[in-house]
Specification:
about 110 residues, alpha/beta, 3-stranded parallel beta sheet, 2 helices
């Protein structure tokens, strides 16, 4: 049984097939953490579109948006791991935040 779901740097763009807000997320009945970097510059994962995911989680008993800002040294393609999209320079902090929520999922 799945105890919860963590979404990081999710595809939010409605025009992109498979984007999270276009999935049947309204039927999810488990805790969901949505973590995103507020400086993510990937065209498919714009921070201002992330709340659409939360709005779609109508039956999730616990849902939390964790918009982070930190790290350093982004380089290359903004849609790849060495940019804000991959939480560059704050990887350990990102893992810590997710692990904390997994131990105690709260809104």
């Amino acid at each position: 049984e799945v105890a919860g779901l963590v979404l990081t740097a999710s595809v939010t763009r409605h025009g992109k097939p498979g984007a999270v807000p276009t999935q049947d997320i309204a039927s999810l009945r488990l805790p969901v953490l949505v973590m995103h970097h507020q400086r993510d510059a990937c065209a498919l994962c714009q921070p201002h579109e992330v709340p659409n995911i939360l709005r779609g989680l109508r039956q999730a008993p616990v849902k939390k948006l964790l918009m982070v800002d930190g790290g350093a040294g982004p380089s290359g393609d903004p849609c790849h791991a060495l940019h804000w999209h991959g939480f560059i320079g704050m990887e350990a902090e990102a893992v810590r935040l997710v692990a904390e929520w997994m131990r105690d999922p709260r809104p």
